[in-house]
TrEMBL record:
Pfam families: MarR, MarR_2. Residues 1-10 have a biased composition (Basic and acidic residues). Residues 29-161, 153-300 form the HTH marR-type domain. PROSITE patterns: HTH_MARR_2. InterPro entries: HTH_MarR-typ (IPR000835), MarR/SlyA-like (IPR039422), WH-like_DNA-bd_sf (IPR036388), WH_DNA-bd_sf (IPR036390). SMART domains: HTH_MARR. This is MarR family transcriptional regulator. Residues 1-21 are annotated as: Disordered. SUPFAM superfamilies: Winged helix' DNA-binding domain.
Amino acid sequence: MTIVRGEPDATQKPVSATEATAEVPGVLPEALTGFIGYLLRRVFAQFTTYADGPEDDSRDFLVLDALTGGDWVSQLDLAERLGINRTIMVGVIDRLESRGQVLRTRNPDNRRQYILSLTDQGRAAVETGRRAVAERDARLTAALSAEQVGRLNTLLARLLPEGSQELVQGTEHLVEQAHHRLRRLGDEKLAGTGLRVRHYGPLSVLAASGPCPQQRLAQELAITGPATSQLVDELVEGGMVVRGRDPHDRRRHALELTELGHARLKEVAEAVDLLAADVAELLGPGGEDELRALLVQLLEPAHPGVSEAAGRLV
C-alpha cells in the first residue's frame, strides 16, 4: 500500500507554505550534510518540487489504499496510523463517502467510532492511483538502480513506527513519512524551549560566520529569501539574534547571535545529536552510512558536491 504526505501532530504548529517550499538548488552547508534528518528533508523538498496533483487527492488515495486490507474499525486510529490530522481526516472521509468510494457506519461495539469500508468504486480508484504512483516513483528515483531503490525503501521503513510500516510503500511516500517522523522526534526533544530542530541550521551558520547579511545566510543554507526571513524573525523574536550593521558595508544590516543565541545553539545541537543517535539505532549497523549514500545520490544533480561533503563528515 502507499502512503502520502503526513500531517504534523495536532499539538504542533502546522508547517507554513513558505517553509514547506523553502529549499532551493545549490551548494549545501557541509556541517549539516552528515545528518540523515537533514538529507531526508532536502530529498523531501526535492520530491515536493515535482508535485503534480492537489494534496487532497494524495490524502484521499492514501486512505483508500489503506482500506484495501479490510475494514477499519476506528476512523481516529486510521488517522493516527497514517499521520493525518484528525480534523483533516473527517474532510477526507466526507469526500470519499460522497463519491461512493468509502462506506462509513457506526461501530456497534463503540458508538463513538466509525467503521470504514472500501466500496467497488473505491477499489477501482486505488488501482488507477497505484499505477500513477509507480510511474511517479520511477521518475523521482531515476538516479538509482532498481536494487538501490529497494534498499532505500527498506531503510526508510525502519524510520517509521512499527504500526505504520505495513501501510507504507513507494519511495516518495516513505521519504515523506520518515521526514515527518524525524522532525517530530527532534522537536519533542526541544519541548518547552521554544526551539525547533529547524533552528539549528541558521544558528550554527551565524555562530561560525559572525555578523552575516540575511542574503548570505539564505545562500549558506540554500533556502529561499522568504523562508530565511521567517526563520530570522523567529530567532529575533526569541532574543537569539539581533539585526545590526554589516561591518563590511555600513549601508546594510547583518545578523549576529546574542549571548542567549549561543546558549540556545548548544541546546538545539544537543537535541540534533540525540536525534542522530536515535536514527542510527533505528537503522541498525551500517544502515546510517548506507542510507546517507543513497540520499546524497538523489540530491547530487541539484546540489553538486554533496556526496563529497557528506563523505568528509562520516
